Amino acid sequence: MPSVQHPRFSAFVANLQAIVDASATEPEILFKGSALLKDLIAHDDWLPEQFAVPNPDRYTQYLLHADPQDRFSVVSFVWGPGQKTPIHNHTVWGLVGMLRGAEYSQGYAQLADGTLTTDGPPVRLEQGTVEAVSPDIGDLHAVSNAFQDRVSISIHAYGANIGKVQRSIFLLDGTTKSFVSGYSNA
Ligand code: FE
Q1: 51, 2 Cβ separation under 8 angstroms
Q2: CA dihedral 5, 182, 155, 53 (to 10 degrees)
Q3: Structural domains present in the chain
Q4: In angstroms, what CA-CA distances link 177 with 39, 86, 105, 108?
Q5: Measured in angstroms, how far is the CA atom of residue 4 from the centroid of ligand 1?
Q6: What is the four-CA torsion angle of 106, 164, 174, 26, rounded to 10 degrees?
Q7: 2 falls in which pLDDT band (50, 70, 90)?
Q8: What's the rounded Cα separation, in Å, for the pair 42 and 46?
Q9: How distant, in Å, are the alpha carbons of 8, 36, 61, 68, 83 from that of 142?
Q10: I want to staple 92 with a disulfide (CB 3.0 to 4.6 A). Which of 17, 31, 159, 170 is the partner?
Q11: CA 55 – ligand 1 centroid, Å
């Protein structure tokens, strides 16, 4: 099981759990959770090295915390140079906070005929900033490391045990393929 022994991280989990325990609405969770995540990633001194190791072949997801009831989870996303995701959804709320480096997130919208189109320009997430996704506010995106020559790391929180969730990868023609991301360490 993962273990991050740092008061900054423990406080983040406890505070996020308190919000979820209070049965907050999704807008409340995203608003309050964004502030918590911003505090967490304001200092890059708590993530154990074992959860920051890139894989040369693909981007890596390490489970940092899973709620015992699978109501939320926290994951470190480690991007090797130039690594990127396909277009994918989440099906639950998600918060992404940039701990180290930077990443690009390109949002997509699905047209009536099922095909996908870009939804605005790519967003560059800089160190210290937080972005949200969910089926209600925009759930389709493709993400990439903003750097071709260095590792970037973002910290994600999701409204489920995201590694177990049945999700979809999309092609621009609207074709989908289901996937379950799992974790590199669980
Ligand atoms: Fe995503």
Answers
A1: yes
A2: 70
A3: 7-180 (2.60.120.10)
A4: 36, 11, 20, 16
A5: 22
A6: -60
A7: low
A8: 11
A9: 29, 24, 15, 29, 11
A10: 159
A11: 18
Average pLDDT over residues 124-132: 97
For the stretch 60-84, pLDDT in tens is 999 999 999 999 999 999 999 999 9
Place of tokens 């008061």: 7
- Tokens in use for 44? 């890059």
Centre of ligand 1 from the C-alpha of residue 88, in Å: 6
pTM for this model (two decimals): 0.95
Mean pLDDT of 36-64: 97
| C-alpha 16 to ligand 1 mean position (Å) | 19
Question: How far apart (Å, rounded) are the C-alpha atoms in residues 161 and 55?
Answer: 22
Whole-angstrom distance, CA of residue 83 vs CA of residue 158? 21
Ligand 1 centroid–CA 18 distance in Å is: 24
Asked whether 161 and 66 are in contact (CB, 8 A), the reply is yes
Distance from the alpha carbon of residue 122 to the mean position of ligand 1, in angstroms: 13
pLDDT tens figures, 18-37: 999 998 899 999 999 999 99
Q: Which residues pair with 70 in a beta bridge?
A: none
pLDDT in tens, 130-182: 999 999 999 999 999 999 999 999 999 999 999 999 999 999 999 999 999 99
Beta-ladder partners of 167? 179
